[in-house]
Amino acid sequence: MGQILFALHVVFLLYAVFGWLAPWRDVLVFYVIFLPALVLQWRVNQNSCVLNNLESLIRTGRWRNPANDEEGAWLLTLARNALGISLTPARMDALIYAVVAVLWGFGLIHLLRLGAGLNP
User: Fold this and answer.
1) Cα separation, 84 vs 93, whole angstroms
2) Helices 2-18 and 25-44 sit at what angle, rounded to 10 degrees?
3) 2-5 — which CB contacts under 8 Å span 24+ positions?
């Protein structure tokens, strides 16, 4: 189950990073809604991802699991373990929100260009 939820995280991460490149209007519309919704669910859920909470609920019967290092820090843990980058949670949040804002902007520009017939 942990591997399935990890794979879902990766799928969502790949869509967040590369979804703005989609050549289809509907996918781009979903993308420009998805990114703010993703950030909103983090903020409403105390900087924790619902996928981590679901894993905690399934494994422990509790929505929050203090023993789960990835809960509220999945990207921070991924950056540290996979890339060797160690940032404070506050700096990681700032980096994540900045990157998401840029990607959202790319998605919106692509969507607007596609709607105006400016994309090949």
Assistant:
1) 17
2) 120
3) 2/55, 5/51, 5/52, 5/54, 5/55
Residue the block writes with tokens 């919704």: 37
Provide the 3-class DSSP secondary structure of residue 119: coil
Q: CB of 24 within 8 A of CB of 110?
A: no
Distance CA 17, CA 28 (A): 13
Phi-psi region of 63 (alpha: psi -120 to 50; beta: other; left: phi over 0): alpha
Instruction: Quickly list H helices, 19-88.
Output: 25-44, 50-60, 74-78
| pLDDT averaged over 10-residue windows placed end to end, the chain, 120 residues | 81 94 95 96 85 82 74 70 76 84 96 78
pTM here is 0.79
How far apart are alpha carbons 71 and 78 in whole angstroms?
A: 12
Answer whether 53's CB lies under 8 Å from 63's CB.
yes
**Is residue 111 within 8 Å of 29, Cβ to Cβ?**
yes
Output the six-digit token pair for 85: 């980058």
